[in-house]
Design goal:
Number of strands: 6
Strand content: 5-15%
Radius of gyration: 17 Å
Structural class: alpha/beta
Largest sheet: 6 strands, parallel
Number of helices: 9
Strand order of the largest sheet: 3-2-1-4-5-6
Helix content: 40-55%
Length: 232
């Protein structure tokens, strides 16, 4: 695939694709997931500490379900996942979508420039599509969800699947993430990875870039990261 052309004020090639995490990166759904976890643990008298909450941020829902069972929620993993997903979808349906600062602007700019974009999330398909259907414009060329891969983040499977679906090389793409498991997955897939930490901290590393926010960020900024890391 031929790289998109950068805007005139940012000469040089752009990423072949942008691979977006959803929860905490595109949409501030983490408080809804945390509430869903606490609803389950409160109902069954299970223990769920702040450490437990932060431990599962960015992890696959199967991982979260396993921790909830360990803490005393007496349900099968699939039932835990279904209940949590339904709770979050309902919460989102009751109000405005809490988009993360700068995300929609960067999505729109990339779309206008013809850069392929994928949503790569460990949320289940119903949850991901509930968000996609509420977007103010069409943007994603493919959506990879947690129920579409056998191994969740921090494994690279979801990012590799997204790159394959787009027909691009993951190494020529930029992944945007907010959590330790997500960043690890994107790096393992070979993507140029930008961490935008939200609920949890992501340790600094030579393996990825760290931005405090997407607010004011442009395609030119993504191209600069690609150039600095020697990617085309």
């Amino acid at each position: 695939m031929t790289p998109a052309t950068a805007p005139s004020d940012h000469p040089g090639p752009l990423p072949q694709a942008i691979l977006w995490d959803m929860d905490g990166t595109l949409v501030d759904t983490e408080p809804f997931w945390m509430n869903a976890e606490r609803e389950l643990t409160d109902r069954y008298g299970a223990t769920w500490t702040e450490e437990d909450v932060l431990r599962v941020v960015g992890a696959g829902l199967g991982t979260t379900a396993g921790h909830l069972r360990e803490r005393g929620v007496p349900l099968e993993p699939d039932e835990i996942i279904d209940r949590m997903t339904s709770s979050v979808i309902q919460a989102l349906a009751e109000g405005e979508i809490p988009w993360r600062p700068g995300a929609l602007e960067l999505l729109r700019e990339a779309r206008a420039a013809g850069v392929s974009q994928a949503l790569v999330t460990m949320s289940m398909a119903p949850m991901a599509h509930a968000i996609v259907h509420r977007m103010p414009f069409t943007v994603f060329d493919t959506v990879v969800t947690g129920d579409a891969v056998s191994r969740p983040k921090p494994h690279p499977d979801a990012y590799l699947a997204a790159a394959a679906a787009l027909g691009v090389d993951a190494a020529s793409s930029v992944a945007i993430e907010d959590s330790v498991p997500g960043v690890a997955a994107a790096v393992a897939a070979g993507a140029v990875t930008i961490a935008v930490p939200h609920v949890t901290q992501v340790p600094e590393s030579a393996d990825h870039e760290t931005w405090p926010s997407l607010r004011g960020r442009t395609l030119g900024d993504l191209g600069e990261v690609m150039r600095r890391r020697g990617r085309r």
